[in-house]
């Protein structure tokens, strides 16, 4: 067995001290060692984006990172979006616009959208579709996801 | 308050939005072990020996088994057994022969998933490779001495030979639909837990009650000793929830190892081990007259079943043959479908099974008729559609053991509405102008009939507790399609309560003795109808009890927002449903008089399916430089009978369109000559993204409610995907200016390049 290492991960503002093998992915570590199962694994090779999280504010695939690489980084997952009982404006917009069906890809899309709108709050139309094409959804046909993100962006700007 | 017909936000969304949902992989059981399946890496071969020693020596490995270690029967058929297929069933683990890349040969159990994967790499299987069979139109042998041509399904009416002989024109076409499948974003997962008395399977989906019985039978347990639990499910599309080898393995292992056994599929496994679908070759002959009226269709097709016949048995072949005539009169018809075994991943159903293929074939044929006679695509369809006065229309053949009777429909009316919505003459002029400017742009149209609401029954229990909360318990399943919300809407409306007080329990075999699950676009029709009946019975009982307590006539009472009062005196004496539930609580006086509990169980029965119908229209642009095809406009006209929640209906239709466009342009499971899968990752099996799917326009109609159920509803689950392949093919033809250029799906850049280079 490969020896484990202690790693401190800063997730949603909370420090998690975990013992992991160097080969353990960030996604598996978040899910198994931090108990944050909102980050989902859809392909484990960086294509589907279901495992998208924010690392120092940028969307990244947590299936393509090892936990041991992430010490010192600020990690945000879907569990950190809602504050108290209040949904984040993106979560609210996805709910209002039926932007999810099975909901498996939803955490990844929420984190992708949060990161993308932080970089460009005016993202809309084709440029927005281009960014959202980073992740896969098999249920919705994307239109309601696009509408939800556009609506959330408008609400965030106002 | 009226709930049916309103676009209500989904009740199921909050946990999904906040990361609190519990999908199979999110569950943790103390003491669990991880299972890893050792799969065949050759498409066809004879197993000479298996070496387990190295794997067993790895620290953290709990057990390694082959077929010899388990005495399990092969996996049986859930549907459409046509007889003679038993020998083609899949064993839980291969013993003598392997028949596809991805076939389970051994299983490893270890303390965690990483170790289990390490150990699986140390299992050595010696296989003598055999020549693989990869072409269903040339059936070979399944096993020594057994034909790969497993069954032939024939459906026919009218005198096809005579009609062909006397028809003014004949066209023959060979049309092919590639191998696609559902590919839910959540891979499969199964966790078996045995407590010495009860065996529990978590990660169940689609058909929990059937699978409970099947697992019980395979393991020699009574059904009462097996309970299935559906958690959140990340998409189904027909493929998830069927009984697979891995489900049986975790259950068997949990009993033997006396520890919870967890199996979470990875994506590579999913793309080679979960059901594939489509993959048909059709040779169709069409006889028609000078007006373009089709007098006869004769179709022979080959269904590439893959390596084994799985739980669906002949379902896809049956539905293809039954539904191919679609919305047209077609006075004489014959279809002969061959189920042929090959050395690819076994096939089952995928959203609109047999109709995506059949509609592609039929509509291509109709387009061929139009191009032969120089007719407009609308005109040729107008000539052939079944007129309103002929409906209900008996087709004279059966589908899944039920007579095909189109129960209601205004086919011509929908065609005219779509024509108007498109502003077709203007659209045509616009396309001509763009083409004149050098753009390769084209329009396509396709018409289809869907089916939904497969019986034979559905049972629902509605209970009101003494806090006035209402629980609807059903054996239906939720795969993400919005079951909880739509069933709650129906219950809230029928019972007269606020939707917030209703919760829907599904997919739990422990909570209701029987159930049919979720497939064949059946839930809103079957479960919805049973919910109407059960909620109606609870309402009647509530009114009876209230009449007693209020000393009024039940007929004079009303329920609104969970409160019963005398009609016309809203502010007079009233009782809440909580009061009434308490009044008939077990042991109370009221229970003695009225029976205990404010509760009712009802079943809805159906001998026939209900048939929604629709039209797809598309505009595509072909880029001759890249051989790419972009869908720039897409319209679905669909009559759903009655929409319980139009927002969810639209979601179903648009989602289906996206999957269908994937199958039309991008998705295909390809194999090399040795039977090695070439599409075993998301780099090779391409799902459409937000960039490939346009905003979909909808003409959602409720012009032809179903007379077959109390709500008048028809299903929406498959109407979005049904005609996508057909319509994209027609639009690409038009863009290329080459009638009948597209004869196979998907229209990959490679094939488009061939068409562009002539």
Structure description:
The complex is a heterodimer of chains A (158) and B (758). Chain A is of the alpha+beta class. Chain A has two domains: 76 residues, Roll (Ubiquitin-like (UB roll)); 69 residues, [2Fe-2S]-binding domain (DNA polymerase, domain 1), CATH 1.10.150.120. In chain A, 34% of the residues lie in helices and 16% in strands. Chain A has five helices and five strands. Chain A has a five-stranded mixed beta sheet, with helices on both faces. In chain A, helix 2 packs across helix 5. The longest helix of chain A has 15 residues. The model of chain A has no long low-confidence stretch (mean pLDDT 97). In chain B, helix 11 crosses helix 12 and helix 13 packs parallel to helix 14. In chain B, strand 22, helix 13 and strand 23 form a beta-alpha-beta unit. Chain B has three domains: 197 residues, Aldehyde Oxidoreductase, domain 3 (Alpha-Beta Complex), CATH 3.90.1170.50; 248 residues, Aldehyde oxidase/xanthine dehydrogenase, molybdopterin binding domain (Aldehyde Oxidoreductase, domain 4), CATH 3.30.365.10; 151 residues, Aldehyde Oxidoreductase, domain 4, CATH 3.30.365.10. The mean pLDDT of chain B is 97. In chain B, the strands form eight sheets. Chain B has a seven-stranded mixed beta sheet with strand order 3-5-1-14-11-12-13, with helices on both faces. Chain B has a six-stranded mixed beta sheet with strand order 9-17-16-15-10-31, sandwiched between helices. The interface between A and B is large, with 55 and 58 residues.
Question: What is shown here, in short?
Answer:
The complex is a heterodimer of chains A (158) and B (758). With 158 residues, chain A is α+β, with helices and mostly antiparallel strands.
């Amino acid at each position: 067995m490969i020896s484990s290492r202690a790693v401190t991960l800063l997730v949603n503002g909370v420090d998690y001290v975990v013992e992991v093998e160097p080969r353990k992915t960030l996604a598996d570590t978040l899910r198994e060692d931090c108990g944050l199962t909102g980050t989902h694994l859809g392909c484990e090779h960086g294509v589907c984006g279901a495992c998208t999280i924010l690392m120092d504010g940028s969307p990244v695939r947590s299936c393509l990172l090892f936990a041991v690489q992430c010490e010192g980084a600020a990690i945000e997952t879907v569990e950190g979006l809602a504050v108290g009982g209040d949904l984040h404006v993106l979560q609210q917009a996805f709910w209002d616009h039926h932007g999810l069906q099975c909901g498996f890809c939803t955490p990844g899309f929420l984190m992708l959208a949060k990161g993308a709108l932080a970089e460009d709050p005016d993202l809309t139309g084709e440029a927005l579709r281009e960014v959202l094409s980073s992740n896969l959804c098999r249920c919705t046909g994307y239109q309601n996801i696009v509408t939800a993100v556009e609506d959330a962006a408008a609400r965030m700007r106002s | 308050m009226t709930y049916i017909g309103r676009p209500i936000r989904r009740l199921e969304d909050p946990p999904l939005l906040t990361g609190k949902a519990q999908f199979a992989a999110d569950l943790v059981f103390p003491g669990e072990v991880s299972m890893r399946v050792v799969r065949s890496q050759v498409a066809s071969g004879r197993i000479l020996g298996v070496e387990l020693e190295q794997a067993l020596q790895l620290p953290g490995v709990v057990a390694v088994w082959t077929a010899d270690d388990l005495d399990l029967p092969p996996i049986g058929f859930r549907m459409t057994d046509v007889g003679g297929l038993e020998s083609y069933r899949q064993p839980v683990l291969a013993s003598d022969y392997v028949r596809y890349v991805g076939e389970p040969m051994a299983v490893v159990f270890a303390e965690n998933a990483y170790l289990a994967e390490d150990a699986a790499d140390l299992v050595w299987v010696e296989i003598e490779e055999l020549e693989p069979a990869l072409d269903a139109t040339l059936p070979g042998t399944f096993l020594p001495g057994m034909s790969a041509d497993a069954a032939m399904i024939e459906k026919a009416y009218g005198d096809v030979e005579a009609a062909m002989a006397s028809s003014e024109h004949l066209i023959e076409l060979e049309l092919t639909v590639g191998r696609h499948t559902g590919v839910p974003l959540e891979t499969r997962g199964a966790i078996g837990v045995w407590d010495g008395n009860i065996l529990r399977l978590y990660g169940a989906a689609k058909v929990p009650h059937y699978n409970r019985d099947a697992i019980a039978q395979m393991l020699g347990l009574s059904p009462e000793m097996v309970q299935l639990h559906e958690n959140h499910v990340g998409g189904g599309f027909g493929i998830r929830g069927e009984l697979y080898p891995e489900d049986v393995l975790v259950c068997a292992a949990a009993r033997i190892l006396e520890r919870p056994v967890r199996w979470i599929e990875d994506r590579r496994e999913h793309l080679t081990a979960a059901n594939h679908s489509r993959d048909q070759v059709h040779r169709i002959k069409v006889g028609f007259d000078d007006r373009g009226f089709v007098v006869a269709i004769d179709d022979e097709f080959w269904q590439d079943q893959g390596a084994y016949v799985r739980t669906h048995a002949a379902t896809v072949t049956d539905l293809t043959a039954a539904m191919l005539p679609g919305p047209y009169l077609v006075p004489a018809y014959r279809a002969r479908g061959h189920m042929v075994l090959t050395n690819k991943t076994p096939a089952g159903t995928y959203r609109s099974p047999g109709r995506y293929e059949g509609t592609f074939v039929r509509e291509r044929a109709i387009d061929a008729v139009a191009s032969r006679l120089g007719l407009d695509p609308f005109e040729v369809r107008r000539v052939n559609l079944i007129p309103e006065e002929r409906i209900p229309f008996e087709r004279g053949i059966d589908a899944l053991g039920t007579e095909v009777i189109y129960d209601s429909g205004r086919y011509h009316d929908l065609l005219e509405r779509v024509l108007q919505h498109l502003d077709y003459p203007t659209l045509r002029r616009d396309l001509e102008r763009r083409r004149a400017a050098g753009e390769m742009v084209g329009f396509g149209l396709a018409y289809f009939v869907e089916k939904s609401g497969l019986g034979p029954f559905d049972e629902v229990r509605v209970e009101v507790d003494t806090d006035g909360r209402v629980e609807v318990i059903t054996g239906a399943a939720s795969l993400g399609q919005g079951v909880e919300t739509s069933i709650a809407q129906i219950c809230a409306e029928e019972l007269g309560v606020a939707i917030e007080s209703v919760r829907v329990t599904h997919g739990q075999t422990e909570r209701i003795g029987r159930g049919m699950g979720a497939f064949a676009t059946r839930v809103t029709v079957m479960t919805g109808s049973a919910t109407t009946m059960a909620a109606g019975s609870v309402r009647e009982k509530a009114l009876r009890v209230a009449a007693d307590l209020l000393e009024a006539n039940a007929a004079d009472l009303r329920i609104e927002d969970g409160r019963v009062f005398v009609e016309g005196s809203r502010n007079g004496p009233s009782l809440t449903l909580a009061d009434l539930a308490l009044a008939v609580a077990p042991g109370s006086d009221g229970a003695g008089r009225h029976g205990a509990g404010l509760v009712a169980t009802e079943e809805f029965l159906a001998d026939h399916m209900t048939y929604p119908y629709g039209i797809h229209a598309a505009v595509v642009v072909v880029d001759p430089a890249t051989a790419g095809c972009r869908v720039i406009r897409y319209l679905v006209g669909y009559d759903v009978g009655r929409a319980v929640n139009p927002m969810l209906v639209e979601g179903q239709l648009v989602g289906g369109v996206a999957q269908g466009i994937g199958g039309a342009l991008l998705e295909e499971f390809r194999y090399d000559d040795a039977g090695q899968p070439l599409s075993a990752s998301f780099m090779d099996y391409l799902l459409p993204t937000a960039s490939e799917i346009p905003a979909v326009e909808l003409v959602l109609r409720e012009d032809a409610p179903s007379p077959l159920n109390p709500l008048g509803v028809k299903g929406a689950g498959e109407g979005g995907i049904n005609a996508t392949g057909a319509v994209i093919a027609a639009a690409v033809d038009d863009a290329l200016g080459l009638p009948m250029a597209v004869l196979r799906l998907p229209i990959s850049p490679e094939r488009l390049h061939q068409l562009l280079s002539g």
